[in-house]
Amino acid sequence: MSKRTLVKLFSAVLIFLAGVAGNYSIPAVRGTATDMVLVTKVIDGDTIEVEDEKKVRLIGVDTPETVDPKRPDGCFGKQASDFTKSALTGKMVRLEKDVSETDKYGRLLRYVWIDGVMFNETLLRNGMAQVSTYPPDVKYQKHFSDIQADARKEKRGLWNECFVKDAVKNDNRDVFDILVDNADRIIRTIVK
Asked: pLDDT per residue over 2-31, tens digit each?
């Protein structure tokens, strides 16, 4: 039996035992559950490379741009990219497929799980990403929207640093409301 097969088998047994012993619910996986893989490189906040040089685009989230030479770095892009690098580089993760196998660039589309926690959700919870949904891959869309609303309300990450810029792009809320909600902070910034 190969080392990789043993790692997969061992991981599956541990997940099963944790679910039984701790009476935890293990999330249902739509489509095919995929193997545990090693993250070999982080390309940016929402794109990683795993063993066998496969690129993986995280489903349902979008971090500010940092690698497109035709576009300037997005507000909070470096922080989001560094966050993903520190959390995933060199770690074993589980990939969960929704409906689509790949995007138009040939990247695998997956939810990424590390230590039983979905990393796509972690990005949203910490304000490192915005919800970005492309049907048919919508399994966690409502859940992601709720997490983003909380991060936005608490002004975490990009919701603190980039609020006006992002408000202009967002159809859900009027820019005027954003400015009114943040008037004190804006005035303090101008007065400095």
From this structure: 555 544 544 443 344 444 333 333 343 443
Domains, the chain, in order of start with CATH, read 28-159 (2.40.50.90), 162-192 (no CATH)
- The DSSP secondary-structure symbol of 170 reads -
Q: Give residue-wise pLDDT tens across range 41-58.
A: 999 999 999 999 999 999
**Looking at this protein, which amino acid is placed at residue 31?**
G
Smallest CA-to-CA distance from 33 within 55, 4, 5, 8 is with 8
- Residue ranges with strand state E in the chain: 33-44, 47-50, 54-58, 61-62, 92-96, 108-114, 117-118, 130-131
Whether 94 is catalytic is no
Strand partners, 33: 96
**Residue among 65, 94, 110, 121 flagged as catalytic:** 65
From the number of C-beta atoms within 10 Å of its C-beta (0-12, 13-18, 19+), residue 184 rates as exposed
Query: Is the pLDDT higher at 77 or at 164?
Result: 77
Q: Which of 30, 107, 156, 161 is catalytic?
A: 107
77: region left, alpha or beta (phi > 0 left; psi from -120 to 50 alpha) = alpha
Catalytic residue among 57, 94, 125, 152: 57
161 in active site: no
Active-site annotation holds for 49: no
The Cα 38–Cα 88 span in angstroms is: 9
